[in-house]
From TrEMBL:
<dbReference type="Pfam" id="PF00929">
    <property type="entry name" value="RNase_T"/>
</dbReference>
<feature type="compositionally biased region" description="Pro residues">
    <location>
        <begin position="62"/>
        <end position="77"/>
    </location>
</feature>
<dbReference type="InterPro" id="IPR012337">
    <property type="entry name" value="RNaseH-like_sf"/>
</dbReference>
<dbReference type="GO" id="GO:0003676">
    <property type="term" value="F:nucleic acid binding"/>
</dbReference>
<dbReference type="InterPro" id="IPR036397">
    <property type="entry name" value="RNaseH_sf"/>
</dbReference>
<protein>
    <recommendedName>
        <fullName>Exonuclease domain-containing protein</fullName>
    </recommendedName>
</protein>
<keyword id="KW-0540">Nuclease</keyword>
<feature type="domain" description="Exonuclease">
    <location>
        <begin position="145"/>
        <end position="328"/>
    </location>
</feature>
<dbReference type="InterPro" id="IPR047201">
    <property type="entry name" value="ERI-1_3'hExo-like"/>
</dbReference>
<keyword id="KW-0378">Hydrolase</keyword>
<dbReference type="GO" id="GO:0000175">
    <property type="term" value="F:3'-5'-RNA exonuclease activity"/>
</dbReference>
<feature type="region of interest" description="Disordered">
    <location>
        <begin position="45"/>
        <end position="79"/>
    </location>
</feature>
<dbReference type="InterPro" id="IPR051274">
    <property type="entry name" value="3-5_Exoribonuclease"/>
</dbReference>
<keyword id="KW-0269">Exonuclease</keyword>
<feature type="compositionally biased region" description="Low complexity">
    <location>
        <begin position="52"/>
        <end position="61"/>
    </location>
</feature>
<dbReference type="InterPro" id="IPR013520">
    <property type="entry name" value="Ribonucl_H"/>
</dbReference>
<dbReference type="InterPro" id="IPR036361">
    <property type="entry name" value="SAP_dom_sf"/>
</dbReference>
Length: 336
C-alpha cells in the first residue's frame, strides 16, 4: 500500500465504508483506486461545509422558497415535513384499536403488532401529505430482483471449538421487485465431506436425512448449478441483490464452506440485504427471529422451521411486507 492509502484507511475507514455501501451493488470490491476517489469526493464535501460554516454574512437574507419538485433542494426544509411530524405524533398517541380502525377505513392491512400498525399508518400518511402538496421524493429503482437465501448446515447439539459448518441445504427464492411476487425457486441438498455423517441433533433440527445428503452432489457442484439457474432467471441488464435473515448465512456458513471447498466466493455474495436489521430499524422492534417477525406482522410461519426452503419463503414474506409498508430494502451488510 502507498502512504496515501494507509492514511485513508486510518482516518476515514468508517466513513468510506458507509459511503461505499450506498454505491451500486455491482461495485462489490472496494479497490485502492476507488478508495482514493471516494476520499477525494468526501474531502471536497467537507471543504464546502467548512467554507459555508465560516462564512458569516453581514446581513440576514430570507432564502427563496424551494420548488416542490426540485430534487436538488434539501427535502427536509419543506413545510410538508412539519405536517408529517405532527401526524406521527398523533399516531403515537393512538391506541391499537384506534390505529386498526384507521387502517380498516383506509382499506390497509389491519393485522400486526402496535409498532407495525403505527409504522404502516405513518407511511400511508406521509404519502398522502406528499400527494396533497404535490411533493415527491426522488426515487430511483434499486433492483429488479431479490434472491432470498437461508442455508442449512451441519451442526452438533454443542458445537466443539473450531467446528466447521458445512452447507447441506441450498435454497433460493426469487422475488420480482416490481410485483413483489415469487417468480422462481432454486433448491438443492449438498453432500458434506468433512462431516459426512449428520448428527441426530442436526437431522431432528433440519428434517434432512442421512440418505438425502449421501445421494446429493457436493457443494461445488450445487453452487455451479445455482449460478446457472441465476443466469437463466436474471438477464445481464437486470440487477439483483441477495437477501438473508441476519449476517450468518453469508458471513459464516458460505465463507467457511467456500474456504473448505477451495473456491472463490461469487462476487454477488459479497454484499447483501439483512432483513432482520431492516425489520429492527424500520419497526423499532428488536431481538426477534423469523417466527416472531411474522407474528409481529400478524401472520404465522408456514411450513417447517429450520427447513432451508421453508425459511427462505417465510423470510421473503417478511421482506415483501416491509416493502409494502414503505421500507427501502437495500444492501446493509458486507463481509466483516
Amino acid at each position: 500500500q502507498t502512504k496515501n492509502n494507509k492514511k485513508i484507511n486510518r482516518k476515514n475507514k468508517k466513513q468510506l465504508f458507509e459511503y461505499w455501501l450506498q454505491l451500486p451493488w455491482e461495485r462489490s470490491i472496494l479497490t485502492n483506486e476507488n478508495l482514493l476517489k471516494l476520499h477525494k469526493t468526501m474531502s471536497e464535501n467537507e471543504d464546502k461545509k467548512i467554507t459555508t460554516k465560516n462564512s458569516s454574512p453581514t446581513t440576514k437574507t430570507t432564502p427563496p422558497p424551494k420548488q416542490l419538485n426540485n430534487p436538488k433542494g434539501p427535502p427536509y426544509s419543506h413545510p410538508v415535513y412539519k405536517k408529517i411530524a405532527a401526524a406521527n405524533g398523533r399516531i403515537n398517541r393512538m391506541s391499537k384499536s384506534q390505529v386498526v380502525d384507521a387502517l380498516e377505513y383506509l382499506k390497509l392491512n389491519p393485522k400486526g403488532s402496535l409498532e407495525v400498525l403505527q409504522k404502516r399508518l405513518k407511511s400511508h400518511t406521509k404519502k398522502q401529505h406528499f400527494l396533497e402538496n404535490d411533493f415527491t421524493e426522488e426515487e430511483k429503482k434499486y433492483t429488479d430482483f431479490y434472491i432470498v437465501i437461508d442455508f442449512e448446515a451441519t451442526c452438533e447439539k454443542e458445537n466443539p471449538k473450531g467446528y466447521q459448518h458445512e452447507i447441506i441445504e441450498f435454497p433460493a427464492v426469487l422475488v420480482d421487485a416490481d410485483t413483489l411476487e415469487v417468480v422462481s425457486e432454486f433448491h438443492s441438498y449438498c453432500r458434506p465431506l468433512t462431516n459426512p455423517i449428520l448428527s441426530k441433533f442436526c437431522r431432528d433440527l433440519t428434517g434432512i436425512t442421512q440418505l438425502t445428503v449421501e445421494s446429493s452432489s457436493t457443494f461445488e457442484t450445487v453452487l455451479n448449478r445455482f449460478d446457472k439457474w441465476l443466469k437463466d432467471q436474471v438477464t445481464p441488464d437486470q440487477k439483483f441483490v441477495i437477501v438473508t435473515d441476519g449476517p450468518w448465512d453469508i458471513d459464516r456458513f458460505l465463507k467457511t464452506q467456500c474456504k473448505m471447498s477451495k473456491m472463490e466466493i461469487p462476487h454477488y455474495f459479497q454484499r447483501w440485504v439483512n432483513v432482520r436489521k431492516h425489520f429492527n430499524n424500520f419497526y423499532k422492534i428488536h431481538q426477534v427471529n423469523v417466527e416472531q417477525m411474522l407474528q409481529c406482522l400478524g401472520t404465522e410461519f408456514v411450513g417447517r422451521q429450520h427447513s432451508g426452503i421453508d425459511d427462505s419463503r417465510n423470510i421473503a414474506r417478511i421482506m415483501i411486507e416491509l416493502i409494502k409498508d414503505g421500507c427501502q430494502v437495500i444492501i446493509n451488510e458486507t463481509f466483516r
